[in-house]
């Protein structure tokens, strides 16, 4: 019976770990998306800056 309780505990922990992993993957995806937007905006601003310098 102790072995069954151990397996049950392991299954509960595995499920909790799986849920946490999904949360972390979702958060990582969100950060990567935000990072991509920041990089796009940065490139846009650098191009604007270069254009302003050329026209000055």
Tally of helical segments? 1
Order of helices and strands: H
Estimated radius of gyration: 24 Å
Structural class: mainly alpha
The description of the largest β-sheet is:
none
Helix content: over 70%
Distance between the first and last residues' Cα: 82 Å
> Could you say how many structural domains there are in total?
1
Overall geometry comes to: rod-shaped
DSSP strand content? under 5%
Number of strands: 0
- The overall average pLDDT, rounded, is 97
Unreliable residue stretches: none
Structure characterization notes:
The chain has one helix at residues 2-55. It is mainly alpha-helical.
How does the SSE layout of this entry go?
Blueprint (H helix, E strand, L loop, with lengths): L1 H54 L1
Give me a quick take on this structure.
The chain is mainly alpha-helical and 56 residues long.
Keywords:
mainly alpha, single chain
């Amino acid at each position: 019976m102790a072995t069954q309780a151990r397996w049950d505990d392991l299954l509960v922990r595995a499920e909790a770990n799986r849920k946490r992993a999904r949360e972390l993957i979702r958060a990582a995806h969100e950060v990567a998306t935000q990072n991509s937007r920041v990089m796009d905006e940065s490139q846009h601003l650098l191009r604007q800056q270069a254009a302003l310098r050329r026209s000055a």
